[in-house]
Amino acid sequence: MRTLIPFNENWTFCKPGEERMPVTLPHTWNAADGQDGGGDYWRGECIYEKDFPAPDTKSDEEVYLEFDGVSASAKVSLNGRFIGAHHGGYSRFRFNITEALHAGVNRLTVAVSNAACDTVYPQNADFTFYGGIYRAARLIVLNKAHFDMDTLGGCGVRVTPRVLPDGSADVQVSARFTGGCAVFELNGEKLEGDSVTFHMDNPRLWQGRKDPYLYTLKACLRLGDIPADKLEIPFGIRSFRIDPDEGFILNGESYPLRGAAMHQDWLGKGNAVSEADMEESMRHVYEMGATTVRLAHYQHDQHTYDLCDQKGIVVWTEIPYISEHMDNARENALQQMRELIEQNYNHPSIAVWGLSNEITMARGDQETLVPFHRELNALCHRMDDTRLTTMACISPLPVDHPLLSVPDVLSYNHYFGWYGGHLEDNGPWFDRFHALHPDLPVGVSEYGCENSLWHASHPEPGDYSNEYQMIYHESLIKQLFSRKYLWATHVWNMFDFAADAREEGGTKGRNNKGLVTFDRKTRKDAYYAYQAWLTDTPMLHLCGREFVNRDGDTAEFVVYSNLPEVILTVNGTEYRRQAPDHFFHFTVPQPEGTYTVTAAAGGLHEQAQFSHAAEPDPAYRFQQGTVLNWFDIDTPEGFYSVKDLLKDITQSAEAAAFVNPVLAEMTAARAKKAEQKEQEAGRKTQKSGEGISEEARRKITLQFSLLQLIRMGAPDMPKERIIEINQRLNRIPKRQG
Fold first, then answer.
1. What average pLDDT is seen over the chain?
2. With CB atoms counted within 10 Å of each terminal CB, which end of the chain scores lower, N or C?
3. At what angle do helices 366-383 and 330-344 cross, to 10 degrees?
4. What's the pLDDT at 629?
């Protein structure tokens, strides 16, 4: 019988030129520098070593070494003998080490590298590529007659449930093994063979969050009357389809997929997280009311998939084929897809295999991308004919691009209202796409905006405030959730995460689009907008409680609740409001001095204290370069301003003639600053967006307001200069039609 021996203790770790140090798995060497900004976290090869006694074995037993995740490449040696290599930082792999073991002490050496290369994905993406043995490891002692351990890190047994038209189900079981006779037991029935089918007249279906029921298949290999190997495999019985008009259908009933995408890393830990950390992450997903999660942008730990099975969360899972196509990494992308499918085949929560993410962002022409996506797509369907394929398209990808015809369903990453465009553009864009492609299911794979926990009485795009994130998600919830044809919608992101090259909103090395903070300790107010919309258990949340000092004669207070009526009490004065959209907005007179606000509904209540301030409190505002007040920028009706999108400004020949030299001035200043930075660093720095085509760059730029472009490209532009530019635009009439 197989025995699992934990293998996480008593390792040593050595970085080039440094002393060995003791470590315990999971471990990453980028937990600190991969999150502190600068885009300069250390990438290279490090050495892990471990001395251990050979496990007790019998003559008919073998020993396997198993790693759940090593990033990104591993070369494994035992007692000076090369055992094998693995390339890809997110999947399980194992080696048979029986022949290399010594009777006494054994030395295992693992050379781990996350160095830049062009043969392993990912290499170009907006998140940190942590290096290390960052998931658990173990030894497995088992009989020479065992379920397959040598194929793509899988378990050797596939369970394929199929719901039949009459409501019954067939559960097909196929197995690979090295000897003996396979016996399978399900619900007390036993069948023997390497491929068997159980029939169930009245199966209890896996119904997502409503009833995530799991069966357990017992698999046993027997040598005569003696059991040689055993496995217990949880699985669920369900059917689903994705309809271009009706969206996601689970077991014949509409089941809207509304949720978020998530990365695996944590503040201060990187991706070296524990199972308890994974459970805490999934708790936030579940309590928000999400019915789906997109596990981005790579294969996650098996425990996370298990949790999704148990909690009824429908999963989009994908490989890190992201941002750019690399010809030398074709086989690696295919290998990572093979491993993803083989290792996760039995999880009922998984509905779609993701082929790529924003792959047209950088290098890779149409003649390359389309055939390779077809190859990936065909691979998925050969290995698994029960699930669909999808891809996440970058926003500017043309709606007639041939890539759209490759996967079974697709989604777009759109950030209208944050990265350019207008907030209200989101829903109509999908309506136009749906009308153009009525037979192609479409969803939203990413949407979101940064919230660095600043506050604003007059929030607007680019201020990184809690209040603008609330406005953004209130609008997107109304726009997206009302469109039934959207097969899935995924907020970007469930949690803040590390992107070491970033420096936005006053935080270095982080993407702050999360609904929950990087340490999982604070749920931002927008989180509760989703909870109000998606959950039935009575809830109420008074927003902005940290925004204590508020200026102005009136103040807006927002309450999120799934109850029909909310009462807001301000120093004893009651305001009553009903809101069918679950978003309760109260604009009330501010009492002088300090006052108490209470929100109440259905026996629930929350209370906080606030103060009437004479002036805006600068402690709440993100101070980046030039500080502009909301009232500094005039926006007269019928005339342009710096708050207009560049695509609208350039519709006027007069406005374009004025703005183009301003943009050229900004571009020259940015190039000069980058050159100075390179000279100071003594090396060439990787530029954000390098490899994006000029046409794609132009289309993206046109979606931003001129003020956003100034804030991003010329943050040190004097306030007076911005006001001057705005006043000039205020004199140019908007082009009609």
1. 93
2. C
3. 30
4. 62
Q: How far apart are CA 349 and CA 344, in angstroms?
A: 10
Paired tokens of 721: 């200069």
| Residues recorded for the chain | 737
User: Where among 213, 235, 257 does a domain terminate?
Assistant: 235
Please indicate, yes or no, whether residues 386 and 499 belong to a single structural domain of this protein.
yes
Beta bridge partners of 75: 85, 111
Find out whether 495 and 273 touch, Cβ atoms under 8 Å: no
- Rounded Cα distance between 377 and 175, Å, is 24
Per the structure block, which two tokens stand in for 568? 């807001």
Q: Who contacts 241 (Cβ-Cβ below 8 Å, separation ≥6)?
A: 249
Q: Domain check: are 167 and 36 in the same one?
A: no
Q: What is the 3-state secondary structure (H, E, C) of 56-80?
A: CCCCCEEEEEEECCCECEEEEEECC
Instruction: State the catalytic residue, choosing from 318, 324, 358, 467.
Output: 358
CB atoms within 10 A of CB 173: 23
Average pLDDT over residues 409-416: 96
Residues 6+ apart with CB under 8 A from 217: 157, 159, 171, 173, 184, 185, 186, 232, 233, 234, 235
Same domain? 325 vs 359: yes
**Is 656 within a domain?**
yes
Is 362 or 624 the better-scoring residue by pLDDT? 362
Tens of pLDDT, residues 233-261: 999 999 999 999 999 999 999 999 999 99
Domain for residue 736, yes or no? no
Give Rg (Cα) of the chain: 28
Predicted pLDDT at 152: 98
CA angle 359, 364, 369 (to 5 degrees): 70
Domain end: 620, 645, 662, which one?
620
CB 313 within 8 A of CB 105: no
**Per-residue pLDDT, 30:** 98
pLDDT of 711 reads: 73
Give the integer Cα–Cα distance in Å for 83 and 78: 7
Q: Helical H runs in 345-412?
A: 366-383
Residue 252, C-beta contacts closer than 8 angstroms, at least 6 positions apart: 239
pLDDT at 194 over 60: yes
Q: What DSSP assignment string belongs to 635-663? A: --TTB--TTSBHHHHTTSHHHHHHHHHHH
Q: Tokens for 569, please give them.
A: 């009490």
Number of C-beta neighbours around residue 224 at 10 A = 8
Question: In terms of domains, do 135 and 193 share one?
Answer: no
Q: Please check the confidence at residue 691 and state whether its pLDDT lies above 60.
A: no
Burial tier of 737 (Cβ tally within 10 Å: 0-12, 13-18, 19+): exposed
Q: Which amino acid is at 681?
A: A
Is residue 460 situated within a structural domain?
A: yes
Statement: the pTM of the whole predicted model exceeds 0.85: yes
User: How many CB atoms within 10 Å of residue 536?
Assistant: 7
pLDDT computed for residue 668 by the predictor: 81
Beta bridge partners of 197: 172
Is 358 part of the annotated catalytic residue set? yes
